[in-house]
Amino acid sequence: MSQSKKNTKQKIFDAAIKTFAEKGFWKTKVSDIVAEAGVAQGTFYLYFNSKDDCLYELLEYLHKGTLHQINQLIENKQSTIFDICASFIKRIYQYKMLSKVFLFEALSSGEKFKNLYFRFKKNIRDMLSKVLSEETNNYNETTVSIISGFLKELIEYYILFLNEDLDTILKHLYEGLEKIEGARYEKI
Amino acid sequence: MSQSKKNTKQKIFDAAIKTFAEKGFWKTKVSDIVAEAGVAQGTFYLYFNSKDDCLYELLEYLHKGTLHQINQLIENKQSTIFDICASFIKRIYQYKMLSKVFLFEALSSGEKFKNLYFRFKKNIRDMLSKVLSEETNNYNETTVSIISGFLKELIEYYILFLNEDLDTILKHLYEGLEKIEGARYEKI
Amino acid sequence: MSQSKKNTKQKIFDAAIKTFAEKGFWKTKVSDIVAEAGVAQGTFYLYFNSKDDCLYELLEYLHKGTLHQINQLIENKQSTIFDICASFIKRIYQYKMLSKVFLFEALSSGEKFKNLYFRFKKNIRDMLSKVLSEETNNYNETTVSIISGFLKELIEYYILFLNEDLDTILKHLYEGLEKIEGARYEKI
Amino acid sequence: MSQSKKNTKQKIFDAAIKTFAEKGFWKTKVSDIVAEAGVAQGTFYLYFNSKDDCLYELLEYLHKGTLHQINQLIENKQSTIFDICASFIKRIYQYKMLSKVFLFEALSSGEKFKNLYFRFKKNIRDMLSKVLSEETNNYNETTVSIISGFLKELIEYYILFLNEDLDTILKHLYEGLEKIEGARYEKI
DNA sequence: TATGAATGAGGCTTCATTCAT
DNA sequence: GATGAATGAAGCCTCATTCAT
């Protein structure tokens, strides 16, 4: 892939993220994306087969990257559940707009996206399970649900609704996990 | 409102809930709703100004009813946090399809719906706060976030994804609150 | 089907025939047809799934009607090959524009239409065969090819290109068949 | 024209013939042609002004070549009508794909092409007239129509539809002319 | 009140053509 | 000459909404 081709695709990608996040998948027109990207309507179709396709590629990118990042932490045996969650929250915060699309658009954007969303949720829960079972001796599924739900609440309420900064959110996370797990963590 | 008018509107209401839940707001056509309801296309517009309007009315109905139900429990000073949560879960379970639309479509269906959704979330959190502060002496916002997130996880994962029955879900709820609060509740 | 519905479909049908005949299938836009018919763009899609569909329905109509008409003549045992051909030519002349579409657009409008065209051609040849074998004792396939080709030449050259009137064309037909068959026919 | 330029143009020419014949003029995209030719999209426009232009050049080439070939036969006073027709059929068979485009696409590809087609048809008929009037003493226009139609039927039905081989088709031709003319020809 | 045919603005996508390299 | 990414006009089709009956 040539440099210029890569650039054009990236421009469209960035514009799509921004537009999907602002207007939502269904209200976003391809013409909005290309206007934001500064390319012609037809150019969009050189890189994506459809609007659907574009969203799917974006979500897969976030999905894979996030899981990969967490997996690497897990392989480092010294990572605590706090490290994992903080890493997750940081990534979501970094990709705020794209995450918004993933977490709050996917369920209503068609079967394909719903499946991707639930695959993601399942993966996150599995990772939490793994770390919890290594870390504590009274692991159970309920704890996974509590933490998984708490993470989503942090994102939904503190990031999206209240729009708080990362440090404040990590503080909430720390306090929450402390309460849930009854343990103290080193902040990272 | 005459009896027959009420019936027609109710037919459309029910059809709309079913269709929105099955196909999502954006993929639902007015023609789908009226086909399901067994009335003519034009009839829809005798009762609703628009497709948006119809969804909004539905969500407000769920919103108000749910808050009202919880409020009544709160006014009965003996209600525990478990009672409140169980009542909430039961109602969501009862209006499974409509709730699905509310909890997972609203954020992506336009500004108006997003506002309604966050108003609802805020109300639920406030009620939890109120009960918690009456019930425990170490109440804090973090606990509200944990419980609020846990409730949504129960709905998202156990009701929508795994499609478990009400009793199983209430069991999860009980175990979760026990873990969060470190207390035992009377099951209702 | 209500009267008004029938009328609208007929209006579109007529407009489609005219437009297809004038501009050809590929150059005809749905917007041309509806403009000619005096209805809205969307109305077209109440009656046809697509432009393809519309053409197909038109051609089938001509196809079936023409075959039916000839079949009835054949069942009357006294019909000569001249009667059959004259009846065919008259029908083509009557549906001049639609026939033009069938005979000269179908082969280039996609597989489906090509198949319909060759089915039609085969049917016509079979009918000619049947009548010839009843009428003469030295019937053979070559004669069928000669007559079939002659008929198409009459249409292509005298109707479409020279735009001659029906009587002149029937005169050509009479002379041609006389030459081919070496017999004299009663003009009908 | 340089050698390499000639090669590129020829590659595109050949690809265009193949593609037009397979998919028809309207369904053929310039991108199909260049893919088949193995050149870049822009290269097409170094040799042709437009897709229309390319088809027109192709058809003119077939047109002129065919007429030229027949004219040479006519100048040789000993050529019979069978020689002329056989030569015509052989050429059509040799340029099967291109002929398909000419004979069955031209009428529906726009005014310019329709004119070219009828010019061709007129030329063929004139040549037949000329030979017939030299060969027989009871020449008339009807015979021209019969032979012209028969030739097209041979192409349409036996070449395109039944896909028979050249010898078989020439046999049909021989039998047909024998029947039409009541004479015996030397096969060439 | 109820109907359902008709509307038409608007979105998605295609593809012939251009042009900078 | 050759390339192929970029263009953008144009066309098909959808569907929320209207309105005459």
UniProtKB/TrEMBL annotation, chains A, B, C, D:
<dbReference type="GO" id="GO:0003677">
    <property type="term" value="F:DNA binding"/>
</dbReference>
<feature type="DNA-binding region" description="H-T-H motif">
    <location>
        <begin position="29"/>
        <end position="48"/>
    </location>
</feature>
<dbReference type="InterPro" id="IPR009057">
    <property type="entry name" value="Homeodomain-like_sf"/>
</dbReference>
<dbReference type="Pfam" id="PF21542">
    <property type="entry name" value="TetR_C_42"/>
</dbReference>
<protein>
    <submittedName>
        <fullName>TetR/AcrR family transcriptional regulator</fullName>
    </submittedName>
</protein>
<feature type="domain" description="HTH tetR-type">
    <location>
        <begin position="6"/>
        <end position="66"/>
    </location>
</feature>
<dbReference type="InterPro" id="IPR001647">
    <property type="entry name" value="HTH_TetR"/>
</dbReference>
<dbReference type="InterPro" id="IPR050624">
    <property type="entry name" value="HTH-type_Tx_Regulator"/>
</dbReference>
<dbReference type="InterPro" id="IPR049446">
    <property type="entry name" value="TetR_AcrR1-like_C"/>
</dbReference>
<keyword id="KW-0238">DNA-binding</keyword>
<dbReference type="Pfam" id="PF00440">
    <property type="entry name" value="TetR_N"/>
</dbReference>
